[in-house]
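Two entries, shown back to back:
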Amino acid sequence: MTEFFYAPTPMRSVLIANRGEIACRIIKTCRRLGLRSIAVYSEADAGARHVRLADTAHAIGPANPSQSYLRIDAIIAAAEATGADAVHPGYGFLSENADFVQAVADAGLVFVGPSADAVRRMGSKITAREIAKDAGVPVVPGYDAEGASDADFAKAAQKIGYPVLVKASAGGGGRGMRQAGSKADLNRALEDARKEAGAAFGDATVFIEKLIQSPRHIEVQVFGDGAGGALHFHDRDCSVQHNHQKMIEEAPAPNLPDKVRAALSEHATSLASSIGYSGVGTVEFVMGANDAAPYFLEMNTRLQVEHPVTEAICGVDLVEWQLRQAAGLPLPLTQDQITPQGHAIEMRINAERPEAGFLPDVGRIAVLQTLDCLRFDSGIDAGDTVSSHYDSMLAKLIAHGSDRDAARQALLAGIDGTALIGVGTNLGLLRDCLSAPAFAKGLATTAFLSETFPDGWYPDADILLRLRGQAALAAITGQSDPHTRTDGFRVGARAAPGRAPLHISDDYGQTDLCLHLGPDPTVTSGERDLPLGPPPAYLALSGPEAHVASRGLALKLSARALAEARMDARNDVAEQGSIPAPLTGLVTEVRVCLGDRVAKGDTLVVMEAMKLVHTLAAPFDGTVGKLTAAVGDTVAAKSILVEIEEQS
């Protein structure tokens, strides 16, 4: 603290203009450095973890980000009210908003990040492409003329050659991106990309690039001194993605020729130096899987989600570097002192259901258990509620090993030792990704997910059945460790001793199974008969439900005697023509009216939740018989929005 107090720009208090995992991450470094941390929060986040961790917290508005975390005036007012010296933007929200950077400076506060000019210039992907060209950095062939019409884009795409990628000029995270494989696809891709970009970033400007098929996504962490110099912290590989959203990141990038690695670092530092960049930033590249020619993609003028893997191999705290520079203190290391050691891999734990098309999930975190030996950057604790208002990322699990396989094996063990129950997560999918041959060999490209799981991902049938059997046994015996029970058990008059036919309901649906009780219990479903095996990583009872987690899968399960369930069965399954909301969210478009004729696949309603756009389509040809959705409505998950009557 003394160093910051007597720094050229004295600093004692830092307001974090963000929420969730990154706010908690910044608070941790502020606390270590003796700096006072100030959290801001929306009405939905009044009890959030970052609010609980901070020294001071200030309310800034309603749950909707546009009325809270994206309100520049509310953030500035909070900083002034709490006596902040500096503002750290984190990532997302206002972190790459040049007007926000300027407003912070105009208020006499220190912005922990680059200048407004750098943010503005690099925040526009179109402008960034021109800067890269001028700096001698190769860019992907594309078309980015200002004010271009759809006809102009179509002409340019024909010249570039299909397929092309429509991209938002502002923002990042894969939003506002659409592929077009032909001229027929392009108009819709332009429309959808503009719509999503406008909703996510307030700027619907788009451009097109040649789509490099199955590329590697490589990036370089840089840190500019603001005077034309720039350091690099080596490279990362972020190729494992879903819908342009990164899932697994690692450093350094595997199987990269030394010549390419050197070129990447040179391109990244040249670009940062060319604009006198100040602070932390990331220069992103794409490269054909079998090529040795990286192309500039974009520059992110902020801390990246994946910064922990760089911190792990370089032995640095990048948030500390940011704070030191903002205070006018010298940078801790020179380039020759930044030497990577070992390998690090990070995975993003999201509240989503990969087996259901990656639908975001909401709910209350009932259980959160992790291994202490791995880094776990989290925005949640047990008891917290995950809402539909914000990004679905909950936490990150990071492993650092002596080499790549050591890090991979440590991360697999970390998943096996993690129990996150209450909302659906992608942990099971992540475990299968880490185990896949292509990833194990370091050969993943951005096509990894579709190539590894061509029919989509679903939990391994045997693992899921065992987990269900273990949870069901706990539920019917009332024992959190039912493996010690050796007597027969009778769940109803229709069940024979030692055998329990059950109907179970859990996070993956409803099914029937049969437990065979005794010294070595087994579970049967269909033609599969499996031993329950050793106890799972986590198993506990909560009222009538059993909570269980193992190998990345987690369940909340309730069990009933099969005979009883069949007798009480009701036809409560919605008609095929009833279109429910897939999750809690905001209705942004209603494209039909009562009585309209629709064809199978026609868009009926468009929703937004967790920063993503969800389109609800007609399941068959028919007529709109009921319509309850209206633009501006916030609707609950599973509520029926439209009913389609099938044509006779």
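entry 2 starts here
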Amino acid sequence: MTALAQGKALRLVFGETITELADEDDRIVVLDGDTGSSTYTSLFEAAHPERFFQMGITEQNMLGMAAGMSTLGLIPIVSTFSCFIVSRAHDSIRVLIAQPKANVKLMGGYAGLLAGMTGKTHLMFDDISIMRAMANMTVVAPVDEVETRSALRAIIDYDGPVYFRLNRPNTPIIFDDDYEFVLGKAVTVREGTDVTVFSTGTQTARALEAAEALALEGIDVHLVHVPTVKPLDVDAVVAAARKTGLVVTSEEHTVVGGLGGAVAEALAVNAPTPMILHGLQDVFGESGPDGPLLDKYGISAEKTADAIRAAAANR
């Protein structure tokens, strides 16, 4: 299976990009939950120390402070691991940020299955389910460094709360430098006629590798990348589903309420279509090396190809 060109880790691109954006916009401030060396907010701290606030492991207080800062016209970027910002501080997000539609950007670092063997308690792959169920919340999951840069600029321009999903490992590059992220829009990555695959975040790179391998077997995959899981691009989802009449959703996330759930909801109302939800099942994860974890939980490029192949065979 041919590998895509390897790019930077999204967490590094995040640190670089917010530092550059802050050069242009003095409203941007960063609040960090003692994860600066891991999420690369350390780059922002070095460049803009007067706008960097080290909050320690007090995530609820950090979100409360961010909400307050937003009322003063600032644009707070809150950064910590996904498990801490989504799960530990959920009530603060709900009450202080989502309900009043505060202009706060929530960066969920180390999201998904691959958290660098930090321990199973640090794994967070139900974050999309939780955050997309929250009223007023926008949910974004970029695939590569090109999209991450463009998407960060877009969410800074957007007035309202955003959850931005960042994975830990280096990630393959699938977009050219002239690619422009548009909030709320899905992107066709590969045209095909046999089966429509929707994916999000870094799983799109694995789905693309799987699609190219399946093409050699005569299975033509129509691949659609969904970087904005909420609001979902319903028109694009319906059109892509109708194109082939068979849908597979693929994500580095639980199949309970994630992208698959969002697509299923849209299709059930607008265009009922046979579909398979591919991703992590209703489980907790474990700590381990990236490759073996992807294989064990069935979302490596090879396992993704297996799932698409099986769906096509059983249509």
